[in-house]
Write a structure and sequence with these properties.
four-stranded antiparallel β-sheet, elongated, 4 strands
Length: 151
């Protein structure tokens, strides 16, 4: 279980993940050694899973983002597994989510432009195994992106 100090550490890390251990400890009002041990414990238990860089894909020339809702042929016993293994091989697929319900899988696809997207869609996506139906949703704007929750 997390105590108040663990939650304080997490709040500071969420707000500013690039803090050094010394800066984090100072902001939390604890020694650097105690802070390091608590962070290490939360990493070992899976509470903190890592840090990542947030990349502006548009700044790198990827102007088209499409969300594909895929329904799989569930008469095939290994449809999910075979589809996700193959979808992971498409480098332009940056996220794969699975669902219960009418839609089985959602793929987030990035492309430089519509011509590039058409090429990815025709040559790489439509050749994925066990697709029964697919719906494309063109990304227009990101209204909110936030993985910070109150702790």
């Amino acid at each position: 279980m997390l105590d108040d100090m663990d939650r304080r550490i997490l709040r500071h890390l969420q707000a500013e993940p690039t803090l050094s251990m010394a800066e984090l400890a100072e902001r939390c009002g604890i020694s650097q050694g105690v802070c390091w041990r608590r962070v290490e414990k939360m990493q070992a238990s899976g509470v903190i899973q890592g840090q990542e860089a947030v990349i502006d894909w548009a700044a790198l020339g990827y102007a088209v983002e499409v969300s594909l809702r895929v329904t799989l042929d569930k008469t095939q016993p290994r449809a999910f597994d075979e589809f996700t293994v193959a979808a992971r091989e498409v480098s332009e697929v940056i996220e794969i989510q699975t669902f219960l319900g009418r839609v089985d899988v959602r793929l987030s696809v990035l492309a430089r432009d519509m011509t590039h997207y058409q090429q990815i869609y025709r040559d790489r996506i439509l050749t994925l195994p066990h697709i029964a139906d697919i719906e494309a949703l063109m990304h227009i704007a990101r209204v909110k992106r936030n993985e910070v929750l109150p702790v």
